[in-house]
Specification:
Layout (H helix, E strand, L loop, with lengths): L1 E5 L1 E4 L6 H6 L5 E7 L8 E3 L8 H7 L15 E6 L6 E3 L3 H8 L6 E5 L6 E6 L4 H10 L6 E5 L5 E4 L5 E2 L5 E6 L6 E4 L11 H7 L8 E2 L1 H4 L1 E3 L3 E15 L5 E11 L2 E3 L4 E4 L5 E15 L7
């Protein structure tokens, strides 16, 4: 069985226009939660026997008979994000910290850059010792130590827990992440009105590692992590994809048919364990997401 999904739309004060144009959903929508089973922010199943049901409800009451491991939380959250302002500088906790303090997942995430408007993003710092950065946080001078990295359409930005990051004005990205809403705001450029910062928590989880964070995903087409694997696949005319059970899919571009269902950009769906193959007609770029088993119980 294939579960096609309708997004949950999230209003944001910093919303860009990309999502509103794409879905004609009115102004102010900064995020479209394409694949979500988060309580009160769930995407909705389109078509089939579960038509109109929230994915969160399906996961709770029906997923086990379709071969999903329902003793654990739904393992993914996939969003579109469009911003018309530079977002605050944030960090996220890892699973251990989040589970100890909240009984929830941490937040490992990736951004796939969808447009060329945002020439750079903030990711990481240019300091090599934590004390220097802590002093900058305490004095409100974080800005001088932030790394602004150039990005292009098709890049994949990997944001590990503890990594300082912020989207720039004009960004339009597809975010794949753990299903978590835990965010610590570290710095907000001293803007007015002042917004709450979470300095203690942010410093608890801060990591200033210098690992590579930007990948030319349109060339490599694969990213493997302990949380999920990502694969980009281009289909021209016709293709069959096997061994699809338990995976999530998002149409990045193009139009066509998947198992006789018409699809367009950013249509997203889950495939249960009983479905063996996808038959695809048309010219389509697909993002295939393979979640890993997560050991944080509901």
């Amino acid at each position: 069985m294939i579960l096609f999904l309708k997004p949950y739309f999230d209003i944001k004060p910093w919303a860009g226009k990309d999502i509103s144009k794409l879905y004609r959903c009115g102004p102010g929508v900064g995020e479209a939660w394409l694949i979500s089973a988060m309580p009160n922010q769930s995407s909705t199943i389109k078509g089939g026997v579960y038509d109109g049901m929230a994915l969160s409800e399906f996961w709770k009451y029906h997923a086990i008979k379709h071969g999903f491991r329902t003793e654990y939380q739904f393992p993914l959250l996939v969003k579109l994000i469009s911003c018309n302002d530079t977002l605050s500088v944030q960090v996220h906790p890892n699973d251990r910290y989040a589970y100890t303090n909240y009984g929830k997942f941490g937040k490992f995430e990736c951004w796939y850059i969808l447009n060329s408007n945002a020439k750079e993003i903030t990711v990481g710092t240019d300091v090599y010792d934590l004390d220097t950065f802590v002093k900058a946080v305490e004095s409100g001078s974080v800005d001088q130590y932030l790394c602004r990295c150039k990005v292009e359409k098709g890049d994949l930005v990997v944001i590990k827990p503890g990594t300082v990051h912020a989207l720039s004005k004009g960004s339009f990205v597809l975010e794949v992440q753990e299903p978590s809403d835990i965010t610590y705001r570290l710095y907000d450029y001293n803007r007015e009105p002042k917004r709450e910062l979470h300095i203690k928590e942010a410093l608890d989880v801060l990591d200033i590692d210098k690992e590579e964070k930007i990948y030319k995903f349109d060339k490599t087409k694969n990213y493997i992590s302990s949380h999920f694997n990502l694969k980009k696949k281009h289909i021209k005319n016709f293709a069959v994809i096997n061994n699809i059970g338990g995976k999530a899919f998002c149409v990045l571009s193009g139009r066509g048919k998947i198992n006789n269902r018409t699809v367009k950009p950013f249509d997203s769906f889950l495939v249960d364990r009983n479905e063996k193959s996808l038959f695809i007609f048309g010219e389509i770029d697909l993002l295939i997401i393979t979640p890993k088993s997560r050991r944080i119980k509901q």
